[in-house]
Amino acid sequence: MLSITQRPDPFAAIKILQYRGLLTGRFCFTMGLRMLSTLVGWWLYELTGNPLAMGMIGLAEVVPALSLALYAGHVIDTSEKKSLLLKGIFSYLLGGLVLLALSIYLYRHHGDKTLVIGGIYAVIFCTGIIRAFVGPSFPALLGHIVPKATLQNAITWNQGTYLSASVAGHATGGFCIALFGVTGTLVAIITLVLLAFLNINRIEKAPPKPTATPMRTWESVKEGLRFVFNTKEVLGALSLDLFAVLFGGAVAMVPIYAKDVLKVGAVGFGWLNAATDIGAIIIVVLLTLFPLAKQQGKRLLFAVAGFGICIIIFGISKLFWLSFSILLIAGILDGISVVIRGTIVQLRTPDEMRGRVMSVNSMFINSSNELGQFESGVAARTLGLVPSVIFGGCVTLLVVFVTWFKAPTLRKMEY
Predict the structure, then answer these.
(1) What is the spatial distance between Cα 201 and Cα 222, in angstroms, rounded to a whole number?
(2) Residues of the chain with pLDDT under 50
(3) For 203, which of 236, 359, 392, 401 is 20 to 30 Å away at the CA?
(4) Which domains does the chain have, with CATH numbers?
Protein backbone atom coordinates (compact mmCIF):
# COMPACT_ATOMS: atom_id res chain seq x y z
CA MET A 1 0.00 0.00 0.00
CA LEU A 2 1.27 3.50 -0.82
CA SER A 3 2.29 5.73 2.03
CA ILE A 4 1.35 9.40 2.13
CA THR A 5 4.76 10.36 0.73
CA GLN A 6 4.36 7.85 -2.10
CA ARG A 7 0.96 9.14 -3.14
CA PRO A 8 0.81 9.70 -6.94
CA ASP A 9 1.33 13.31 -8.03
CA PRO A 10 -1.98 14.55 -9.54
CA PHE A 11 -0.03 17.06 -11.66
CA ALA A 12 2.63 14.64 -12.96
CA ALA A 13 1.49 14.75 -16.60
CA ILE A 14 1.01 18.53 -16.61
CA LYS A 15 4.73 18.98 -15.88
CA ILE A 16 5.54 17.58 -19.35
CA LEU A 17 5.92 20.53 -21.78
CA GLN A 18 4.83 18.59 -24.89
CA TYR A 19 1.75 17.33 -23.08
CA ARG A 20 0.74 20.86 -22.08
CA GLY A 21 0.91 21.87 -25.74
CA LEU A 22 -1.27 18.93 -26.72
CA LEU A 23 -3.84 19.76 -24.04
CA THR A 24 -4.00 23.43 -25.04
CA GLY A 25 -4.46 22.51 -28.68
CA ARG A 26 -7.14 19.96 -27.87
CA PHE A 27 -8.97 22.43 -25.63
CA CYS A 28 -9.17 25.06 -28.39
CA PHE A 29 -10.10 22.50 -31.05
CA THR A 30 -12.78 20.78 -28.96
CA MET A 31 -14.28 24.08 -27.82
CA GLY A 32 -14.53 25.18 -31.44
CA LEU A 33 -16.19 21.92 -32.51
CA ARG A 34 -18.69 22.04 -29.64
CA MET A 35 -19.59 25.61 -30.56
CA LEU A 36 -20.02 24.44 -34.15
CA SER A 37 -22.34 21.56 -33.21
CA THR A 38 -24.38 23.90 -31.02
CA LEU A 39 -24.59 26.45 -33.81
CA VAL A 40 -25.50 24.00 -36.57
CA GLY A 41 -28.30 22.42 -34.52
CA TRP A 42 -29.83 25.79 -33.71
CA TRP A 43 -29.27 27.16 -37.23
CA LEU A 44 -30.89 24.22 -39.02
CA TYR A 45 -33.90 24.18 -36.68
CA GLU A 46 -34.38 27.89 -37.37
CA LEU A 47 -34.15 27.29 -41.11
CA THR A 48 -36.40 24.21 -41.24
CA GLY A 49 -38.43 23.95 -38.00
CA ASN A 50 -38.11 20.17 -38.39
CA PRO A 51 -36.65 17.86 -35.68
CA LEU A 52 -35.72 15.32 -38.36
CA ALA A 53 -33.46 17.89 -40.02
CA MET A 54 -31.45 18.00 -36.79
CA GLY A 55 -31.26 14.22 -36.68
CA MET A 56 -29.92 14.24 -40.23
CA ILE A 57 -26.91 16.27 -39.03
CA GLY A 58 -25.70 13.23 -37.14
CA LEU A 59 -26.30 10.91 -40.08
CA ALA A 60 -24.47 13.22 -42.50
CA GLU A 61 -21.34 13.12 -40.30
CA VAL A 62 -21.43 9.55 -39.04
CA VAL A 63 -21.65 7.82 -42.44
CA PRO A 64 -18.20 8.96 -43.70
CA ALA A 65 -16.68 8.77 -40.21
CA LEU A 66 -17.74 5.13 -39.80
CA SER A 67 -16.86 4.17 -43.37
CA LEU A 68 -13.27 5.39 -43.06
CA ALA A 69 -12.57 4.67 -39.38
CA LEU A 70 -10.73 1.36 -39.78
CA TYR A 71 -8.63 2.59 -42.67
CA ALA A 72 -7.86 5.78 -40.72
CA GLY A 73 -6.50 3.68 -37.83
CA HIS A 74 -4.05 1.98 -40.18
CA VAL A 75 -2.97 5.35 -41.61
CA ILE A 76 -2.43 6.81 -38.12
CA ASP A 77 -0.26 3.87 -37.01
CA THR A 78 1.87 4.08 -40.16
CA SER A 79 2.15 7.90 -40.39
CA GLU A 80 3.81 10.75 -38.57
CA LYS A 81 1.00 11.64 -36.19
CA LYS A 82 1.62 15.33 -35.66
CA SER A 83 1.56 16.15 -39.40
CA LEU A 84 -1.56 14.05 -39.92
CA LEU A 85 -3.33 15.82 -37.06
CA LEU A 86 -2.35 19.26 -38.39
CA LYS A 87 -3.75 18.43 -41.83
CA GLY A 88 -7.05 17.44 -40.24
CA ILE A 89 -7.31 20.59 -38.12
CA PHE A 90 -6.53 22.75 -41.16
CA SER A 91 -9.31 20.98 -43.08
CA TYR A 92 -11.77 21.81 -40.27
CA LEU A 93 -10.64 25.43 -40.59
CA LEU A 94 -11.57 25.40 -44.28
CA GLY A 95 -14.99 23.94 -43.42
CA GLY A 96 -15.61 26.77 -40.96
CA LEU A 97 -14.75 29.32 -43.66
CA VAL A 98 -17.27 27.74 -46.04
CA LEU A 99 -20.01 27.95 -43.39
CA LEU A 100 -19.07 31.58 -42.76
CA ALA A 101 -19.50 32.31 -46.46
CA LEU A 102 -22.92 30.61 -46.43
CA SER A 103 -24.08 32.66 -43.44
CA ILE A 104 -23.02 35.92 -45.11
CA TYR A 105 -24.77 34.84 -48.31
CA LEU A 106 -28.01 34.10 -46.46
CA TYR A 107 -28.28 36.92 -43.93
CA ARG A 108 -26.69 39.81 -45.81
CA HIS A 109 -27.77 39.01 -49.34
CA HIS A 110 -31.04 37.16 -48.58
CA GLY A 111 -29.84 34.01 -50.30
CA ASP A 112 -31.81 30.83 -51.00
CA LYS A 113 -32.43 28.77 -47.83
CA THR A 114 -32.38 25.49 -49.73
CA LEU A 115 -28.89 26.19 -51.02
CA VAL A 116 -27.66 27.10 -47.53
CA ILE A 117 -29.18 23.99 -45.94
CA GLY A 118 -27.58 21.80 -48.60
CA GLY A 119 -24.26 23.56 -48.06
CA ILE A 120 -24.42 22.96 -44.30
CA TYR A 121 -25.00 19.24 -44.80
CA ALA A 122 -22.17 19.08 -47.35
CA VAL A 123 -19.72 20.66 -44.90
CA ILE A 124 -20.85 18.32 -42.11
CA PHE A 125 -20.33 15.34 -44.43
CA CYS A 126 -16.77 16.52 -45.14
CA THR A 127 -16.04 17.01 -41.44
CA GLY A 128 -17.12 13.40 -40.94
CA ILE A 129 -14.37 12.32 -43.35
CA ILE A 130 -11.83 14.49 -41.53
CA ARG A 131 -12.96 13.33 -38.09
CA ALA A 132 -12.20 9.71 -38.95
CA PHE A 133 -8.52 10.72 -38.92
CA VAL A 134 -8.44 13.58 -36.37
CA GLY A 135 -10.43 11.94 -33.56
CA PRO A 136 -8.13 8.93 -32.97
CA SER A 137 -4.98 11.02 -33.62
CA PHE A 138 -5.27 12.96 -30.36
CA PRO A 139 -5.17 9.92 -28.00
CA ALA A 140 -2.63 8.16 -30.25
CA LEU A 141 -0.33 11.19 -30.02
CA LEU A 142 -0.83 11.27 -26.25
CA GLY A 143 0.61 7.76 -25.97
CA HIS A 144 3.81 8.92 -27.69
CA ILE A 145 4.27 12.03 -25.54
CA VAL A 146 3.57 10.62 -22.07
CA PRO A 147 5.57 7.76 -20.44
CA LYS A 148 3.71 4.67 -19.26
CA ALA A 149 4.16 5.52 -15.58
CA THR A 150 2.27 8.80 -16.04
CA LEU A 151 -0.31 7.55 -18.53
CA GLN A 152 -3.25 7.11 -16.16
CA ASN A 153 -2.82 10.64 -14.79
CA ALA A 154 -2.48 12.00 -18.35
CA ILE A 155 -5.68 10.23 -19.44
CA THR A 156 -7.67 11.82 -16.61
CA TRP A 157 -6.29 15.28 -17.42
CA ASN A 158 -7.04 14.65 -21.08
CA GLN A 159 -10.66 13.79 -20.30
CA GLY A 160 -10.93 16.84 -18.06
CA THR A 161 -9.60 19.08 -20.83
CA TYR A 162 -12.00 17.58 -23.34
CA LEU A 163 -14.99 18.00 -21.05
CA SER A 164 -14.09 21.51 -19.90
CA ALA A 165 -13.72 22.51 -23.56
CA SER A 166 -17.15 20.98 -24.19
CA VAL A 167 -18.61 23.03 -21.32
CA ALA A 168 -17.07 26.21 -22.67
CA GLY A 169 -18.04 25.36 -26.24
CA HIS A 170 -21.68 24.49 -25.60
CA ALA A 171 -22.33 27.44 -23.27
CA THR A 172 -20.33 29.95 -25.31
CA GLY A 173 -22.02 28.74 -28.49
CA GLY A 174 -25.47 29.53 -27.09
CA PHE A 175 -24.38 32.92 -25.75
CA CYS A 176 -22.62 33.85 -29.00
CA ILE A 177 -25.71 32.97 -31.03
CA ALA A 178 -27.79 35.24 -28.79
CA LEU A 179 -25.28 38.12 -28.85
CA PHE A 180 -23.61 37.97 -32.27
CA GLY A 181 -25.79 35.72 -34.43
CA VAL A 182 -24.61 32.93 -36.69
CA THR A 183 -21.94 34.91 -38.53
CA GLY A 184 -20.25 36.22 -35.38
CA THR A 185 -20.28 32.76 -33.80
CA LEU A 186 -18.60 31.27 -36.86
CA VAL A 187 -15.81 33.87 -36.63
CA ALA A 188 -15.18 32.80 -33.03
CA ILE A 189 -15.13 29.11 -34.04
CA ILE A 190 -12.61 29.73 -36.84
CA THR A 191 -10.37 31.64 -34.40
CA LEU A 192 -10.37 28.73 -31.93
CA VAL A 193 -9.53 26.15 -34.60
CA LEU A 194 -6.65 28.37 -35.76
CA LEU A 195 -5.32 28.56 -32.18
CA ALA A 196 -5.50 24.75 -31.98
CA PHE A 197 -3.44 24.47 -35.16
CA LEU A 198 -0.76 26.81 -33.80
CA ASN A 199 -0.47 24.93 -30.48
CA ILE A 200 -0.27 21.46 -32.04
CA ASN A 201 2.35 22.76 -34.46
CA ARG A 202 4.71 23.33 -31.48
CA ILE A 203 4.75 19.62 -30.54
CA GLU A 204 7.64 17.43 -31.65
CA LYS A 205 7.01 14.94 -34.43
CA ALA A 206 5.74 11.46 -33.50
CA PRO A 207 6.92 8.95 -36.16
CA PRO A 208 5.32 5.49 -36.37
CA LYS A 209 6.76 2.60 -34.37
CA PRO A 210 9.08 0.45 -36.52
CA THR A 211 7.80 -3.02 -37.40
CA ALA A 212 9.76 -6.09 -38.45
CA THR A 213 7.58 -6.83 -41.47
CA PRO A 214 5.22 -4.19 -42.88
CA MET A 215 1.63 -5.40 -43.09
CA ARG A 216 -0.87 -4.75 -45.82
CA THR A 217 -3.71 -2.41 -45.01
CA TRP A 218 -6.38 -5.10 -44.52
CA GLU A 219 -4.08 -7.27 -42.39
CA SER A 220 -3.28 -4.25 -40.23
CA VAL A 221 -6.98 -3.45 -39.83
CA LYS A 222 -7.81 -7.05 -38.87
CA GLU A 223 -5.06 -7.06 -36.24
CA GLY A 224 -6.59 -4.00 -34.57
CA LEU A 225 -10.07 -5.53 -34.64
CA ARG A 226 -8.81 -8.81 -33.21
CA PHE A 227 -7.16 -6.99 -30.34
CA VAL A 228 -10.38 -5.13 -29.42
CA PHE A 229 -12.65 -8.17 -29.68
CA ASN A 230 -10.22 -10.41 -27.76
CA THR A 231 -9.72 -7.90 -24.93
CA LYS A 232 -13.00 -8.40 -23.08
CA GLU A 233 -12.75 -5.39 -20.77
CA VAL A 234 -12.22 -3.06 -23.72
CA LEU A 235 -15.00 -4.63 -25.78
CA GLY A 236 -17.46 -4.60 -22.87
CA ALA A 237 -16.80 -0.95 -21.96
CA LEU A 238 -17.09 0.22 -25.57
CA SER A 239 -20.27 -1.79 -26.23
CA LEU A 240 -21.94 -0.49 -23.09
CA ASP A 241 -21.25 3.11 -24.04
CA LEU A 242 -22.26 2.54 -27.67
CA PHE A 243 -25.79 1.42 -26.87
CA ALA A 244 -26.27 3.76 -23.92
CA VAL A 245 -25.38 6.83 -26.00
CA LEU A 246 -27.24 5.52 -29.04
CA PHE A 247 -30.56 5.29 -27.21
CA GLY A 248 -29.97 7.83 -24.44
CA GLY A 249 -29.06 10.75 -26.71
CA ALA A 250 -31.63 13.17 -25.30
CA VAL A 251 -29.11 16.00 -25.54
CA ALA A 252 -29.73 16.04 -29.29
CA MET A 253 -33.27 17.23 -28.53
CA VAL A 254 -32.20 20.06 -26.21
CA PRO A 255 -32.74 22.77 -28.88
CA ILE A 256 -36.37 21.67 -29.23
CA TYR A 257 -36.91 21.46 -25.46
CA ALA A 258 -35.36 24.91 -25.02
CA LYS A 259 -37.46 26.51 -27.74
CA ASP A 260 -40.80 24.69 -27.66
CA VAL A 261 -41.15 23.01 -24.22
CA LEU A 262 -39.25 25.16 -21.71
CA LYS A 263 -39.37 28.33 -23.86
CA VAL A 264 -36.06 29.73 -22.59
CA GLY A 265 -34.52 31.03 -25.83
CA ALA A 266 -30.90 30.94 -26.97
CA VAL A 267 -29.38 31.77 -23.56
CA GLY A 268 -31.36 29.05 -21.78
CA PHE A 269 -30.45 26.70 -24.61
CA GLY A 270 -26.78 27.46 -23.99
CA TRP A 271 -27.10 26.57 -20.29
CA LEU A 272 -29.03 23.38 -20.98
CA ASN A 273 -26.54 22.37 -23.66
CA ALA A 274 -23.67 22.91 -21.23
CA ALA A 275 -25.29 21.26 -18.19
CA THR A 276 -24.07 17.71 -18.83
CA ASP A 277 -20.57 18.92 -19.55
CA ILE A 278 -20.49 21.08 -16.40
CA GLY A 279 -21.39 18.02 -14.33
CA ALA A 280 -18.80 15.94 -16.14
CA ILE A 281 -15.95 18.37 -15.60
CA ILE A 282 -16.79 18.66 -11.89
CA ILE A 283 -16.44 14.92 -11.42
CA VAL A 284 -13.35 14.66 -13.64
CA VAL A 285 -11.56 17.27 -11.51
CA LEU A 286 -12.44 15.26 -8.39
CA LEU A 287 -11.28 12.03 -10.03
CA THR A 288 -7.99 13.69 -11.01
CA LEU A 289 -7.28 14.51 -7.37
CA PHE A 290 -8.86 11.35 -5.95
CA PRO A 291 -8.67 8.52 -8.54
CA LEU A 292 -11.03 5.56 -8.35
CA ALA A 293 -9.09 2.86 -6.51
CA LYS A 294 -11.31 -0.22 -6.91
CA GLN A 295 -14.49 -1.74 -8.39
CA GLN A 296 -14.25 0.43 -11.50
CA GLY A 297 -16.31 -2.05 -13.54
CA LYS A 298 -19.30 -1.98 -11.20
CA ARG A 299 -19.10 1.79 -10.91
CA LEU A 300 -19.17 2.07 -14.68
CA LEU A 301 -22.40 0.05 -14.86
CA PHE A 302 -24.04 1.99 -12.02
CA ALA A 303 -23.07 5.29 -13.65
CA VAL A 304 -24.63 4.35 -17.00
CA ALA A 305 -27.81 3.13 -15.26
CA GLY A 306 -28.08 6.44 -13.39
CA PHE A 307 -27.59 8.25 -16.68
CA GLY A 308 -30.59 6.41 -18.14
CA ILE A 309 -32.77 7.40 -15.17
CA CYS A 310 -31.74 11.03 -15.62
CA ILE A 311 -32.75 10.93 -19.29
CA ILE A 312 -36.24 9.70 -18.35
CA ILE A 313 -36.71 12.51 -15.82
CA PHE A 314 -35.46 15.10 -18.31
CA GLY A 315 -37.97 13.82 -20.86
CA ILE A 316 -40.97 14.51 -18.62
CA SER A 317 -39.72 17.75 -17.03
CA LYS A 318 -41.36 21.06 -17.93
CA LEU A 319 -39.35 23.17 -15.44
CA PHE A 320 -36.10 24.78 -16.52
CA TRP A 321 -34.37 24.39 -13.13
CA LEU A 322 -35.29 20.69 -12.94
CA SER A 323 -34.17 20.03 -16.52
CA PHE A 324 -30.87 21.82 -15.92
CA SER A 325 -30.26 20.01 -12.62
CA ILE A 326 -31.01 16.57 -14.00
CA LEU A 327 -28.74 17.15 -16.99
CA LEU A 328 -26.03 18.26 -14.57
CA ILE A 329 -26.36 14.98 -12.65
CA ALA A 330 -26.36 13.07 -15.94
CA GLY A 331 -23.09 14.79 -16.77
CA ILE A 332 -21.54 13.72 -13.47
CA LEU A 333 -22.47 10.11 -14.14
CA ASP A 334 -21.29 10.32 -17.75
CA GLY A 335 -17.98 11.80 -16.56
CA ILE A 336 -17.38 8.74 -14.36
CA SER A 337 -18.11 6.51 -17.35
CA VAL A 338 -15.78 8.50 -19.63
CA VAL A 339 -12.82 8.36 -17.23
CA ILE A 340 -13.17 4.63 -16.53
CA ARG A 341 -13.62 3.71 -20.18
CA GLY A 342 -10.79 5.95 -21.39
CA THR A 343 -8.41 4.54 -18.80
CA ILE A 344 -9.25 0.94 -19.72
CA VAL A 345 -8.66 1.52 -23.43
CA GLN A 346 -5.38 3.42 -23.05
CA LEU A 347 -3.85 1.11 -20.44
CA ARG A 348 -4.72 -2.05 -22.36
CA THR A 349 -3.46 -0.82 -25.77
CA PRO A 350 0.16 -1.33 -27.01
CA ASP A 351 1.85 1.78 -28.48
CA GLU A 352 2.15 0.33 -31.98
CA MET A 353 -1.62 -0.30 -32.16
CA ARG A 354 -2.96 2.94 -30.70
CA GLY A 355 -4.19 4.36 -34.00
CA ARG A 356 -6.16 1.26 -34.93
CA VAL A 357 -7.59 0.69 -31.44
CA MET A 358 -8.50 4.36 -31.06
CA SER A 359 -10.22 4.24 -34.44
CA VAL A 360 -12.32 1.28 -33.30
CA ASN A 361 -12.98 3.25 -30.11
CA SER A 362 -14.06 6.16 -32.30
CA MET A 363 -16.45 3.90 -34.20
CA PHE A 364 -18.04 2.72 -30.96
CA ILE A 365 -18.06 5.98 -29.00
CA ASN A 366 -17.91 9.08 -31.17
CA SER A 367 -20.10 7.72 -33.94
CA SER A 368 -22.68 6.60 -31.38
CA ASN A 369 -23.28 10.28 -30.61
CA GLU A 370 -24.21 11.05 -34.21
CA LEU A 371 -26.19 7.83 -34.63
CA GLY A 372 -27.91 8.67 -31.34
CA GLN A 373 -28.69 12.12 -32.69
CA PHE A 374 -30.20 10.56 -35.81
CA GLU A 375 -32.11 7.98 -33.75
CA SER A 376 -33.47 10.75 -31.50
CA GLY A 377 -34.62 12.79 -34.48
CA VAL A 378 -36.39 9.82 -36.08
CA ALA A 379 -37.94 8.73 -32.76
CA ALA A 380 -39.15 12.27 -32.02
CA ARG A 381 -40.76 12.44 -35.44
CA THR A 382 -42.35 8.98 -35.05
CA LEU A 383 -43.29 8.76 -31.35
CA GLY A 384 -43.39 12.42 -30.39
CA LEU A 385 -40.74 14.39 -28.51
CA VAL A 386 -41.39 13.36 -24.88
CA PRO A 387 -42.19 9.66 -25.51
CA SER A 388 -39.04 9.31 -27.64
CA VAL A 389 -36.77 10.63 -24.85
CA ILE A 390 -38.44 8.41 -22.22
CA PHE A 391 -38.06 5.42 -24.55
CA GLY A 392 -34.36 6.15 -24.94
CA GLY A 393 -33.82 6.27 -21.19
CA CYS A 394 -35.63 2.96 -20.71
CA VAL A 395 -33.54 1.26 -23.39
CA THR A 396 -30.37 2.55 -21.68
CA LEU A 397 -31.47 0.85 -18.43
CA LEU A 398 -32.17 -2.35 -20.36
CA VAL A 399 -28.66 -2.26 -21.89
CA VAL A 400 -27.09 -1.98 -18.41
CA PHE A 401 -29.23 -4.87 -17.11
CA VAL A 402 -28.17 -7.14 -19.99
CA THR A 403 -24.49 -6.11 -19.69
CA TRP A 404 -24.47 -6.84 -15.93
CA PHE A 405 -25.25 -10.52 -16.56
CA LYS A 406 -23.68 -11.02 -20.00
CA ALA A 407 -20.32 -9.32 -19.30
CA PRO A 408 -19.09 -10.52 -15.89
CA THR A 409 -15.48 -9.67 -16.84
CA LEU A 410 -16.40 -6.01 -17.12
CA ARG A 411 -18.49 -6.08 -13.93
CA LYS A 412 -15.56 -7.51 -11.92
CA MET A 413 -12.87 -5.44 -13.66
CA GLU A 414 -10.41 -3.34 -11.61
CA TYR A 415 -7.24 -1.50 -12.62
Answers:
(1) 32
(2) 1-5, 212
(3) 359
(4) 7-411 (1.20.1250.20)
